Amino acid sequence: xxxxxxxxxxxxxxxxxxxxxxxxxxxxxxxxxxxxxxxxxxxxxxxxxxxxxxxxxxxxxxxxxxxxxxxxxxxxxxxxxxxxxxxxxxxxxxxxxxxxxxxxxxxxxxxxxxxxxxxxxxxxxxxxxxxxxxxxxxxxxxxxxxxxxxxxxxxxxxxxxxxxxxxxxxxxxxxxxxxxxxxxxxxxxxxxxxxxxxxxxxxxxxxxxxxxxxxxxxxxxxxxxxxxxxxxxxxxxxxxxxxxxxxxxxxxxxxxxxxxxxxxxxxxxxxxxxxxxxxxxxxxxxxxxxxxxxxxxxxxxxxxxxxxxxxxxxxxxxxxxxxxxxxxxxxxxxxxxxxxxxxxxxxxxxxxxxxxxxxxxxxxxxxxxxxxxxxxxxxxxxxxxxxxxxxxxxxxxxxxxxxxxxxxxxxxxxxxxxxxxxxxxxxxxxxxxxxxxxxxxxxxxxxxxxxxxxxxxxxxxxxxxxxx
Length: 468
Description:
By secondary structure, the protein is an alpha+beta fold. 39% of the residues lie in helices and 25% in strands.
């Protein structure tokens, strides 16, 4: 390798043609900001910086700088024929290090799976093949999310290697780590057929259950991290003074007051010309609601009203969340069924139940539970899509048969009595078909406990009370 010293950085280069690039940028701030590309032999090179801070960073930079580590690991991966951007060199300075790589033009696997629907099956197969190769060569990535895999030239390229290890012995926990981190953001959207095909291509069905258990843990950990950062400025949230705003909604929620909609001991709800304000008397419930909104924002899961900003409480002013107004787009589930159920034919009822089941199926897969699941807390749009209201009552936990029973006991007793048992059963069976629980026992408990309760719901003409 060629060694080139520029200002405070010593560069180790696999190709001397890189020297003019390094000579031109050495010491400049642009290369210290994180990610930079430069023209190189008809293509581009990519330079990434690792700035070290504190004693731990100082020691790491002296022992094995991250730029050098990523270079060496990239060379090793290439020797295994595992696609990764070609490592071309690295640099070390007193403040950190750098990696120089071939620039690979492509999209993240996360993006490709969302935007290239026709290639989904092939992409999932390629992911299984890549993970199988990592197992073969004892490679544990340690940060293997789908944004660290690029799709380019009909191949998957592994990137961000500085946390990676190549191990002498590859144990079950190493295998589970790679698989669970790669699948965590994808798994709940995969069909059972896709899951079966993935593990078939990967070549090991035995690891499936440990991976699924770890995915649950990783998901809950991810939820907690997003909640912990819900009150900071991030890539999706801007903190200015006493307000936390969702980036991209700066021009929303500025209209004048129109009317008061609801007021009780916990909240006051007001309508403005372009938004709703939910004003919380209890700061604890305000925080819970905002945390849930932020989680859904990062998930890109449109199952709650879109939030614009949180206004912290101050002297003489209660805290509130400004969110989209759903008025004129539909009506709550109990009112919807009270007004339309009798006019729906068999096919319309079946389609509606299947749509509602799919909505809750998505929630259950992610461990999303509503602790006050009344019919009035499910909004039905004119397009037959669904939205959860009272976001402060949403929690993120592993679901068991008892929590599912509590949720649907509330729902079952807050819908009109005249909804026939056949339709109630269709919803329950359709919803629980993929859950590993005793459905028959759960359904019997649900019916037994429902029979002991009064039916209470908001109908089209007001509050209704009925007996079974």
